[in-house]
Amino acid sequence: METVAVVGGGLVDIYEMREDPRTQEHVVGKSINMALSERGRSALRCLGLEDYILENYSIKMNARLIHDTNGRKRAIPYGKKDQFLLSISRRFLNELMLTEVEKYNNISINFNHKLVGANLDEGMYHSMENWDCGCA
Predict the structure, then answer these.
(1) Long-range own/partner contacts, residues 48-54 (CB < 8 A, 24 or more apart)
(2) Phi/psi at 53 (nearest 5 deg)?
(3) Residue 44: is its pLDDT beyond 90?
(4) Which GO cellular component terms are attached (predicted)?
(5) SS3 of 7, please?
(6) How far is Cα 25 from Cα 102, in angstroms, rounded to an integer?
(7) Neighbours of 41 (CB within 10 A)
(8) CB atoms within 10 A of CB 85
(9) CB atoms closer than 10 angstroms to residue 44
(10) 123: which residues sit within 8 A by CB, 6+ positions away?
(11) 18 in Cβ contact with 1 (< 8 Å)
């Protein structure tokens, strides 16, 4: 699957070929947790969401555990003394970010739309509404 990010200065229209994951009981795709490094945590911090996620919806990972062939285990820390990764549900993070972006009046989210063409010189695009991605 290819991922494309479109960033505009001003009004933003988001087109997603899948359904809104917040309306689905089961979402097809990656199910394992994500590990957010300082860079991802910094983005959440800028949105005022890091503490909320840290206190309610994540697990701190201070180190990776290495299992040697002789059966010995050893921890290798992630970065400096107080640094850690955050383990968080991919689905939860996606749903949280969608809910947050909906708070902005200048952003429009369009689910079940697939981008089928674009003229970058003219800043024009064409999407197919009610696209069935076969994800259900």
Answers:
(1) 49/96, 49/100, 53/86, 53/88, 53/93, 53/96, 54/86
(2) -70, -45
(3) yes
(4) mitochondrial outer membrane
(5) coil
(6) 21
(7) 20
(8) 21
(9) 21
(10) none
(11) no
The encoded tokens of residue 123 equal 């800043």
pTM above threshold 0.90: no
In one-letter notation, the amino acid at residue 74 is R
Tell me the domain boundaries of the chain.
12-129
Rounded to whole angstroms, the Cα distance separating 17 from 5 reads: 13
pLDDT band at 55 (very low <50, low <70, confident <90, very high): very high
- CB count in 10 Å sphere of residue 58: 24
- Determine the topology of domain 12-129 in CATH: FAD/NAD(P)-binding domain (3.50.50)
Give Cβ neighbours of residue 82 (< 8 Å, ≥ 6 apart).
none
3-class DSSP assignment, residue 64: strand
What residue type is assigned to position 78 of the chain? Y
Q: Where do we find the tokens 């309306």? A: 23
Q: What average pLDDT does range 73-85 have in this prediction? A: 89
CA dist 87 and 135 (Å) reads: 26
